[in-house]
Amino acid sequence: MINSRKLPAFTLIEVLISIALTGLLIVLLNNQITGSLKTDQKIKDKMEYKIEIETILAHLEADIQTASNLPSGYKSVVNFYLKDQLHISIKKFGISAIDQDLLGAEITWKFGNLGISRNIKSKDGKFERYLSKKELQANVIPIGINIFKLIIKCDGFTKSKLFKL
Asked: For residue 129, how many C-alpha atoms fall within 13 Å in the half-sphere facing its CB?
């Protein structure tokens, strides 16, 4: 005897539609996760660059604080612009790494379209180090006789710091 009763089951079309919908959901989720990861990486890169700028400004502040004093009592620090770059020139005394003698050094910080560099010129030679190679704009605004504000604009953010001479 043949059983003519049909068992409940999905048809081929129903199975194909469910597979297509599952594939579509997987593609949408994948795009969402990929977009989130890219956004997260952009935010991480921007935060790392902000920390890099803050570290550079801390080193500049240390150079300014250890600058030699002029007869007027102010620090030997000069700001000027050359070829669309801000230069901060600092004169100070230090110990030679070569022969341990006292020597004078001129440190020049450059801020501009080539990034940020720190140049040291002394009797030991000339040394240049790029601390950042991202294009930026820098401006100095005098606040008082011995205080100035350095403003750095780059990659959609602005960072400023006050320096006392």
From this structure: 8
CB 103 within 8 A of CB 93: yes
Residue located via tokens 């996760």: 33
How far is residue 104's CA from residue 68's CA, in Å, rounded to a whole number? 9
Determine the Cα–Cα distance for residues 88 and 63; give it in Å rounded to an integer.
Answer: 10
Burial class for 53, CB neighbours closer than 10 Å (0-12, 13-18, 19+): buried
Dist CA 88 CA 126 (whole Å): 16
Query: What does the pLDDT profile of the chain (165 residues) look like in tens digits?
Result: 566 677 788 899 999 999 999 999 999 999 999 999 999 998 898 889 889 999 999 999 999 999 998 888 888 999 989 888 999 999 998 777 777 778 889 999 999 988 999 999 988 889 999 999 888 999 999 998 889 999 999 877 899 999 988
Which residue's structure tokens are 């350095």?
A: 150
Those residues whose C-beta lies under 8 Å from the C-beta of residue 133, and which sit 6 or more positions away, are 114, 115
- Please name the residue that has the structure tokens 């003698």: 101
